[in-house]
Fold this protein.
Amino acid sequence: MDDTTTLSLADPLGNAREATAEMLRSRDHGYSLPQPFYNDERLFQIDMQEIFQKEWLIAGMTCEIPAKGNFISVQVGNSPVIVVRGAEGRIFAFHNVCRHRGSRLCVSDKGKVAKLVCPYHQWTYELDGRLLFAGTEMGTDFSLADHSLKPVQVKAAGGYIFISLAEEPPAIDEFLRTLEHYMEPYDMENTKVAVQSTLLEKANWKLVIENNRECYHCGGSHPELLNTLLEWDDVTDPRASQAFKEQVAACTTRWEADNIPYAHASFGLRNRIVRMPLLAGTVSMTIDGTQGCKKLMGRINDPDLGSMRILHLPHSWNHCMGDHMIVFTVWPVGPQETLVTTKWLVNKDAVEGVDYDPQNLRRVWDATNDQDRILAEENQRGINSSAYQPGPYSQTYEFGVINFLDWYSERMLNNLGEQSAHLR
Ligand code: 3BY
Ligand code: FES
Ligand code: FE
């Protein structure tokens, strides 16, 4: 059936789109958002359509699908997506939706298959998405070629796999080239996920990101993290002390000599990379600040690389140290429900129980994630009150939150504008 002949329901979100745009146009800059942005079902649907289905998202790491037939799957709002390694090392991404009657093809988070076989009636697809087999029951004029899996845009760089459900996603290549350069010392093809976690938080995804974008709350909540993390993201931070600036100068001289990228790189407000030292005398985000993995990553031979922080809006932050790296991704589930996945990566040749103890590796961020979960959930509970009104962010402590909301607001207004232009 031709798409153009399909009947469609009138856009049930029409009024909500207008109201959303208006609330963003009239919001108080530097203040938290009006309540519906954090708890309304329609606004959640609009976030999904205008942000998560249009942006590039980090589906996982290339080292998670090292061989032909390896796949990982993710859930972008209502849309399940599968990322699979095909022939000749190529990475493909597809909607995880069978072209017969729509069943999900891959039901697990990861695995290995020879072909993609639907569990419902066994339609069988090649790893490049072509339908190979639909039995003889479909009749003689059935066309296999017309029923390939629907592709999803995919790009890999620096060990990361980015997907986008948009037909024309935003430009990302310049950031990816830079990411590739910054990740070069890590030799990402020779890494592995040592351990991972999934945390369901009863809070809107924007509260999870807002919480991550500031360390105003760190002193009150994160004793384990503060054993090693210095909260300043840059020497330009007005709160940065002289001692910190001197530490940065000493570290960057060493990194420069080892050809380890560190300089601040920004791509609008969407992406940001910078390497910053950890607390003097510590080298890794472990409870005591010592290495969590004895074997360093890639070509790295100085364990003291601080932490390279990578921000990718709308949904990921990362810490790359000398011995391991941590990848965080945020997946909205509902207006007040969000999944946070954390992956700890180490050198592929590091031996569990000898070079690293996964329980030790994960301890700091397990504690931190759970503390942040509680903060986000309490934030959500208060915001749901009839008494909530947007409150002011600190310009010095919470500029990262202001930046995130500026980015979000700009994207939403831009995308909602496109929408109404189409309807006109
Ligand atoms: O991701 C981080 O390292 C920290 C945790 C809390 C604030 N954020 C910048
Ligand atoms: Fe997939 Fe029938 S729904 S084979
Ligand atoms: Fe936190």
